[in-house]
Amino acid sequence: MSKSKIFREIFRYLKPYRTLFAFTVLAAVAVVAGQLLAPFFAGKAIDCLVGAGNIDKSGLTLDLIACAASAAGAVLFQWPMTLASNKIAYGVLSDLRVAAFSKLGKLPLRYIDGRAYGDVSSVIVSDAEQFSDGLILGFNQLFTGVLTILGVLGIMLAIRWEIALVVFCITPVSFFVARFISRSTYKTFKAQTEARADEAAFVDEMLAGLKVVKAFGREEENDAVFREKNEALRRASLRAVFFSSTTNPSTRFVNALVYAAVALVGGFLAISTAGMGAPFTVGNLGTFLSYANQYTKPFNEISEVAAEFQNALACAGRIFALIREEEEPSDEGLPALGRVKGEVRAEDVAFSYDKDRSLIEGFRLGVKAGMRVAIVGPTGCGKTTLVNLLMRFYDVDGGAIYVDGQDIRTVTRASLRENYGMVLQETWLKKGTVRENLMMGRTDCTEEEMVEAAKAAKAHAFIMRLPAGYDTVLGEEGVLSAGQKQLLCIARVMLCRPPMLILDEATSNIDTRTERIVQDAFAALMKGRTCFVVAHRLSTIETSDLILVMKAGKIVEQGTHRELLARGGFYSELYRAQFET
Predict the structure, then answer these.
(1) Per-residue pLDDT, 407
(2) Could you read off the pLDDT of 530-539 as tens digits, one per residue?
(3) How would you classify the pairing of strands 406-407 and 360-367?
(4) Up-side HSE of residue 185: CA atoms within 13 Å toward CB?
(5) Which residues have a Cβ under 8 Å from the Cβ of 289 and sit 6 or more positions away?
(6) What domain count does the chain have?
């Protein structure tokens, strides 16, 4: 994302805070005016003391009072200016995070699946924070710095244009230094941000799968990968810090040049104009030397802020790229599907995650309402992909999928998914009571219906053994076993009683005895409902009405368990691999 586009996005998010922004500008003008007037009155006070027996006590008192009032005014307006700028920065930060998080719910799964979760979370949390910090620095130092530079030049021109001309001639050196640092630091900070996000994504993945890492003894390999990513971040950070650290010595050199030039020219003017009608007084020289410091200080600050601001722009670019990402096509205006019988048909379906590598081609399927269909095959053959297409988490690249004769792309996604119940291998329970988790998909159910579903899923007995029964709060580690969590998920689906079911290894975390009981409960409760079962353990799908055997994205065999075994084909090979010793 180019800098111009980033700035346009920033201004768009600043619009709601234009009143606060206007107040910040006025407060900044007042602060700078107070800071510039103080040296002016201090110089006049010095002139009241110059010369033997030429002390102007009344003038000195007035000038000192005016100097103190100017300094006090600058301090007085500094506090509300900082408060207002912080409100703007943190308000924009909040708006950005809300927009980014809201965007996640509208993005297609293709985007989420193609990125590490840690990378996406880093954009919303870390990059947004970095951008906010840069925005605060921009308000508090960048804007006041520019006003100070313009104000000092204006006053210098009004008092003595010769010195102002000298200062103005040295100014391009400061701009050259600031521009060089700005260009260099943007690239380095962008690289640092990307390296930091990559490391954060790896750490997030490592923590999420720590049990798997330990089970397979991957600690040393992961440690090596982390060291490599950490080294990349170290190199990127060193480059960023190196270029940003050149700011201080470079701007100090320019400061020294300006101060020396003002002192030299001002000294000559004070000597050469002594006794003239419009002399350049000692007080004027003191004022100009103070202005020389005030003039060069903003360049020092601006150069430092420029480095941080470039980091903020790099972070902002990642945030806006997420917010501007293409959303899942809207289904607004499409009709709702309504409750269906459960007849599913796929005709010549084609789909691939990578356009250069096909996965599913010419896929055909015909399932009558109430059938129990098992989907089996080796890893990567397209079983889960098929589920994603049925639920319309992904849209087909070619062909069509029909439910009760209606193309699922012509109805709303929500109405389609309301007709499906899903139980996955990985359980998902929110932090809340058992009751709240069971009633998540059907909040209007009665107590009796909830208990009936729990009993059917063989979950009622262990729920009643919990400290508070159905009112036990979940979310604490160790409250439920993996199998008990799975039973709650099964009970939740049973309570909704959808016309179609998708079970992806739904009983994988349940012991053999409980699995048999739950399978019987499923058979009784889901009679007359279409059921798709993604299975790896072939013993769980022997009673299925239809078994689809997938290989390389295609159905290579289909039939009942006995029919497929009798054929001695690919299914037979899979079955023997599991059960023959």
Answers:
(1) 93
(2) 888 887 777 7
(3) unpaired
(4) 25
(5) 259, 262, 263, 266
(6) 2
